[in-house]
Amino acid sequence: MTIRAIVGLAALNAGFAILGLAWLFAIRGLPRLADVGRLAGLGHLVGVALFGVAWTQLLVVGVPFGGIQVVLTLLLGTAGGLGAGLALRRPRPTRTPRALPPRTTLLVVAAGVALVGLLLEALFRAARLQSLQAFDAWAFWVPKAKAIYFFGGLDEQIFTTAAGPTYPPLVPLLDAAAFHAMGGADTITLHVQSWFLVVGVVAAIAGTLAGHAPAWVVWPSLLAVLVVPRLGEKLLTPQADVLVDAFFVVAALLLALWLGDGRGWRLATAAVLLAGATLTKREGLLFAAIALGAVLVAAWSRQRSTLTRLGGVALVVLAAAVPWRLWYRSRDLSGEAPADLGLGTGLDRALDAVRLSAEVLFETSLWSLVPFLLVGAIAIAVVWGDRRLGLFFGAVVVLVFLGGAWVTFSYAELELTADEGRNPIVRYTGAIVLLAAAAMPLLLAARRRRL
Predict the structure, then answer these.
(1) pLDDT digits (tens, 9 = 90+) for 307-365
(2) Cα separation, 265 vs 330, whole angstroms
(3) Which of 90, 125, 296, 308 is packed most tightly, with the most Cβ within 10 A?
(4) Within 13 Å and on the Cβ side, how many CA atoms surround 388?
(5) Distances, alpha carbon 440 to alpha carbons 209, 216, 220, 227, in Å
């Protein structure tokens, strides 16, 4: 690990944030300088999604990948976003004086930022010296990244013979870009790139919730989720689990806010994030379907207009997902979904799969009390708060839960166990736990407004 490698990673992630902010400027405008700071985390996540989606399509058609191409992509993408924003006459950032919030609020925010900051600082110290230990990381995620880095593309031998050949290439792409930023395939310092992604996700959730939920709920919720035993173990692992969950959770948060105010930029941003999820891991497609299906459940009274807009989101997601699927199918690869959708298995296995999902979700040694708190917040919102919001997040949780049960049920080769080496249900359930960081503040804030 060198200072040059860390500076390179910092520059790369700053490029992602600027790229995402440029496109947020294009679709919504950034009327205040405060908006730039508040949405920087969301911009980082959007920039990662845009970069990954664009380069997946480019690799599929054979465009070579290298350090110069990474820089040009960030520069041209940022210029395109800024140009579109100026052409559409979006409001530009200005220094607008604002009244200071109450002293109590400032103290809560300062305490929350300090506690989360201490945790992130500890994670950074662990990341800069952590070796490559996770099996999936050294078995296929990082080898695929090295193939893109050294060979400049989707090397057919590596991508068709390594484990998980149908897994989308967005994470290996990000890792290959990180190698170029570091100046070499440094698998130790690569964990710092995972740390930057964690910081971006925390900032994205906190910034998106700003103004919609009080600080005294936002920061404790974030901290409670970050210190969950199972999630804390995997935050720095160079795999796709945390990133696909982050894309899904922030997209779900934007869709929840869109249900309330109908602002189109939230829907457009959610479409970009869900497109990124479909190219991050195989269950990204399932997560996208769950998020859009939950919107239909919550907005049943105005489904005609909702269907039209969600149809546009679905088209964006499918357009991003299809080229990669065509690439691996053209090489006679399969395995992204069971051929018979699990119809060949029996009722007993289905019941056992549901039971296993419930046991994993409410296992306190994995997730502490976070799932119980999330279910309680949803119940409070449905009964006493914002029913539409409660229905949306309730539908998301139920559908993700049933999706996990379906994965176990439909793949007959998976054992009915929480052992991650034999069943991925624990990794899948992490999406519900990360969702709690975004959903609980919004649900409790809705109840507070009713009071």
Answers:
(1) 888 999 999 999 999 999 999 999 888 766 665 555 656 788 899 999 999 999 999 99
(2) 36
(3) 90
(4) 14
(5) 11, 12, 10, 16
**Closest to 450 in 3D by CA, of 393, 388, 396:** 388
Mapping DSSP onto H, E and C, the string for 268-283 reads HHHHHHHHHHHCCCCC
In DSSP notation, 79-103 reads: HHHHHHHHHTTPPPPB----PPPPH
With 0-12 / 13-18 / 19 or more C-beta atoms within 10 angstroms meaning exposed / middle / buried, residue 69 is middle
Contact, 167 vs 281, CB < 8 A?
Answer: yes
| DSSP classification of residue 41 | H
Helix 40-60 and helix 303-329, axial crossing angle in degrees, nearest 10: 40
Count of other CB atoms within 10 angstroms of residue 236? 23
CA atoms within 13 A on the CB side of 20: 32
Crossing angle for the helix pair 347-361 and 387-410, to the nearest 10 degrees: 130
176 touches 145 (CB < 8 A): yes
Rounded CA gap, 268 and 399, in Å?
Answer: 23
Q: Check: CB of residue 5 under 8 Å from CB of residue 189.
A: yes
Residue 306 in 3-state DSSP?
Answer: helix
Instruction: Note the pLDDT of residue 341.
Output: 59
Sorted by sequence, the CB contacts under 8 Å of residue 293 that are 6+ apart come out as 395, 399
All residues at 6 or more sequence positions from 318 whose CB lies less than 8 Å from its CB, including other chains: none
- pLDDT surpassing 80 at residue 449: no
> Sorting pLDDT into bands at 50, 70 and 90, what band is 2?
confident
Structural contact between residues 143 and 162, judged by C-beta atoms closer than 8 angstroms? yes
**What distance in Å separates the CA atoms of residue 21 and residue 26, rounded to the nearest whole number?**
9
| 8 Å CB contact between 201 and 20 | no
Tokens matching residue 63: 């465009």
Give backbone dihedrals phi and psi of 210, rounded to 5 degrees, phi first: -60, 130
In DSSP terms, 210 is beta-bridged to 213
